[in-house]
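step=encode ok
step=design start
structure_in=
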């Protein structure tokens, strides 16, 4: 599914359940020691996905422990992103020579809990969601907005090396399956130019909402 919303330069792999026999590298095992079993399983499966995606780039299996800010540590010259939610895990990777950053996110297709939209949505975004809801009530647009923001964060953090508030990016969702992002915080420079605008794609299928940004 995630492949459908990523450009060809980005390799990806996904899983819909966990292989209970799968193992981790020692440094990964150390990073997850003490976590509950469900967390250990998603952490392990998404790393299997990441290693499968890296194999498509010709890169042999390597440890992928969490790095600064809990962002995954990719091999030199590689950018990527991982996501997991109930019933879904995915990873996407690309050569840094072709793509500056990748951010992917998966969410269950269900409205956000009460009160969350008020915390994460800007007034303009909330007005847009009203219009989208009137047009098509089958998509949980509030959850999709949240997912877009999570994908933005996964692109932002490895480039900026600092956190980004939910109010720091304004999302405009197009019902046709794309979204655009206006960054409102002082942006990092990418290839000598400020990162002020990025765009991504989204997919609503089989009980899941997926979002993906590949910043080229
Ligand atoms: C980091 C965050 C975006 C993860 O998203 P999530 O929906 O909770 O969880 P997902 O399963 O989709 O993604 C988790 C994966 O994201 C990756 N990740 C975690 N922190 C990251 C970071 N700082 N940068 C990039 N990727 C990160 C990791 O690979 C993690 O999986 P792992 O712990 O098994 O390695 C989220 O927890 C968070 O901190 N959000 C607050 C910041 C934010 O979203 N601001 C809005 C900006 S507009």
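sequence_out=
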């Amino acid at each position: 599914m995630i492949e459908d919303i990523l450009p060809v330069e980005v390799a990806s792999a996904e899983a819909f359940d966990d292989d209970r026999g799968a193992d981790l590298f020692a440094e990964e095992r150390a990073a997850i020691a003490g976590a509950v079993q469900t967390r250990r399983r998603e952490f392990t499966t998404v790393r299997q996905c990441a290693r499968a995606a890296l194999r498509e780039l010709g890169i042999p299996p390597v440890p992928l422990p969490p790095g600064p800010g809990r962002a995954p540590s990719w091999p030199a010259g590689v950018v990527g992103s991982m996501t997991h939610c109930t019933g879904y895990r995915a990873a996407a990777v690309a050569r840094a020579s072709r793509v500056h950053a990748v951010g992917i996110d998966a969410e269950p297709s269900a409205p956000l809990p009460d009160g969350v939209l008020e915390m994460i949505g800007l007034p303009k975004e909330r007005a847009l969601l009203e219009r989208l809801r009137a047009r098509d009530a089958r998509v949980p647009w509030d959850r999709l907005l949240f997912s877009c923001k999570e994908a933005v964060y996964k692109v932002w953090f490895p480039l900026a090396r600092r956190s980004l508030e939910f109010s720091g990016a304004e999302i405009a969702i197009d019902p046709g399956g794309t979204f655009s992002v206006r960054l409102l915080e002082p942006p990092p420079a990418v290839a000598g130019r400020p990162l002020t605008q990025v765009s991504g794609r989204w997919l609503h299928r089989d009980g899941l909402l997926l979002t993906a940004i590949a910043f080229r």
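step=design ok
step=annotate ok -> The longest strand covers residues 197-205.
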